[in-house]
Each structure stands twice: as C-alpha cells, then as structure tokens.
Automatic annotation (TrEMBL):
Keyword Transmembrane helix: yes
Source organism phylogeny: Archaea, Methanobacteriati, Methanobacteriota, Stenosarchaea group, Halobacteria
Pfam family name, one: Caroten_synth
Native source organism of the sequence: Halovenus carboxidivorans
Membrane spanning stretches: 37-55, 67-88, 95-117, 137-159, 171-193, 205-227, 248-276
InterPro entries linked: BABR_hydratase, CruF, CruF-like
Protein name, per record: Carotenoid biosynthesis protein
UniProt cross-references to PANTHER family, sorted A to Z: SLL0814 PROTEIN
Length: 292
C-alpha cells in the first residue's frame, strides 16, 4: 500500500532537517577544533586587557565597556560548550533548557528587585538591552554556562561516582560557588555591578548562599535535559567541551591578579590544575606555533 503523500512529504522534510542539523554540527565541530587556541586563549586574554583598560579609563567611550563587544567576546568563548553539547539536544533537552532559561531570568529579576537570594545589588555597566529595565536579556549567556561547566567538570573528575545525585549535587554546587568566588570580586572591581555591602572583596555572604540554591535547581534541570550515559560518552570524546572553563581561568584569574585579589587567583588556579589533570590544555601544537 503506497504511503500517503502528506506523510511522505513530512518524512522528507524531517530527513532533510536532520541532515542539515548534522551538517551544521559537523561544521561547528571543525570550526571549534581548528581554532581552540584563538577561542580559549586569545579571546579571554584580549578580553581581560580591554576590560581592564575600560575600567582604568584607558579606552575612549565608544570602546570602553562596549556591550556589543562584550557580548560578542562572551558568545565566542561559549562556542566550545555549545558545540560540545549540541548533538545531545533533543526535545526533552530543549524543554529542560528552556525551563533553565526561564529560571535564570526569574531568579535574577527577583534578586535585582528584592535583594534575595543574592543580596542587594545593581548593574553599573551595560551588558546590552535590559529586560524590564532591570536585568540583561543576554543573562542566560552568562548564567547557564557557570553551572554547565561545573556539571561537566564534576562528571569528568568523578566518573562513575558522578552518576549518584548524592555526589553530583553537592560537588556541582561547591564548584559553582567556587566559580563565583572568582567571578564576582572581579566583576565588582571592574564596576560591572555593585553590592550594598560585602566582606569578601565587596561581595556579601548571602550571594553565595543564593548560588547554592541556583546551582541545585539548575543541576536538577540539567539532569532532566541529558541522559547520563550519552553525556558521559560525549564529553569524554569531545576534547574541547571544557575550553570555556579554560577561558574563565585566564580571563577572571588575570583580572583578579591585576587587582591583587589573591584568593580568587588561587581558586582560579585550582580550576586550571583540574583541567590540566584532565588533559584539557593539550591544544594541537600547530595552533600554538604558527606554520607548524
């Protein structure tokens, strides 16, 4: 019995869409793999120099803290995370990640308007268009990778033990808090945002309690998004999936060092040591030495 014309057309459209998606993912994979040093080293180093020059008044107004330059740089540094996880994103992952985006906006808006759960703070530097004039539209680009990188690092470091929620949840939460112990002091020093009070380089303790809450919720949604076996296999095979963490260590570690915030520098170095142990710094020699 011949297949109805409508069903045949639908199948063909789906087949082509799947083929186009795989071709796109393959192209993205090659682009990132061929430019690992540029993405994970050059961009954060240049970014750190430009941010520090902006904060110190060494750049003219069109360039100083230009939000589109900031967003462009961040987007490029996020490419390894996007390319690494893209093949795993199906309908279930799309829904779970959509919920995570919604949570990101909701918890940040709550924090910016009530002071909970992160403490009283305000954005002092434009990070692009603002939602309700309060929080950046690009917020998920900044927020979600913090948890995803922690989640992936936990899985790689703890292996089979990371399958247990009793291990995964506290480890990811601890890593997220550690990342923010590096990020927030640097952002405050640059003038990105400001807290009303804080004993740790201008950041209040409540902020880190808020990140524990956010990391637990985000980890639960990431658990829902990705199958554990498929995720472990993908991040084990994808050499560049944690290059965004390399960028983080270089960018925020150098900014903290410039301002003499040595506790964040040490924490950033600990992340760097973990990545080195996992062989995530082994960029191809040809990318490090031009002409090789």
């Amino acid at each position: 019995m011949p297949e109805p014309e409508g069903e045949s057309t639908t199948r063909e459209v789906l087949r082509r869409a799947l083929s186009d998606r795989r071709a796109f993912e393959h192209s993205l994979d090659r682009l990132i793999g061929d430019n690992r040093v540029t993405i994970a080293v050059v961009f954060p180093v240049v970014g750190a120099v430009m941010l520090l020059a902006s904060a110190e008044g060494l750049l003219p107004d069109p360039l100083a803290f230009n939000p589109w330059l900031v967003l462009c740089g961040v987007a490029v540094m996020r490419l390894p995370l996007i390319g690494g996880l893209a093949p795993l994103v199906d309908r279930r992952a799309g829904i779970a990640l959509g919920l995570l985006v919604a949570y990101t906006y909701g918890i940040e808006y709550l924090g910016a308007t009530t002071g909970l759960p992160y403490g009283e703070f305000s954005y002092e530097v434009s990070l692009g268009p603002m939602l309700f004039g309060t929080i950046p539209w690009a917020l998920p680009l900044f927020f979600i990778p913090l948890v995803l990188n922690s989640y992936l690092l936990c899985v790689l470091l703890f292996g089979e033990r990371a399958r247990s929620a009793a291990v995964r949840l506290p480890v990811v939460a601890a890593m997220v808090v550690a990342i923010d112990l590096v990020l927030d002091p640097g952002a405050v020093a640059l003038g990105f945002w400001e807290y009303e009070a804080g004993a740790y380089y201008g950041v209040p303790a409540l902020n880190y309690a808020g990140w524990v809450l956010s990391s637990v919720v985000a980890t639960a949604l990431i658990d829902l998004a990705f199958g554990r076996t498929e995720l472990i296999e993908r991040i084990g095979d994808c050499e560049y999936v944690l290059d965004d963490m390399v960028s983080f260590v270089l960018l925020w570690g150098s900014i903290s060092a410039f301002y003499g915030a040595w506790v964040p520098v040490v924490i950033a170095a600990c992340f760097g040591a973990a990545l080195y142990r996992l062989d995530r710094f082994d960029f191809p020699v040809g990318q490090l030495v031009p002409g090789r």
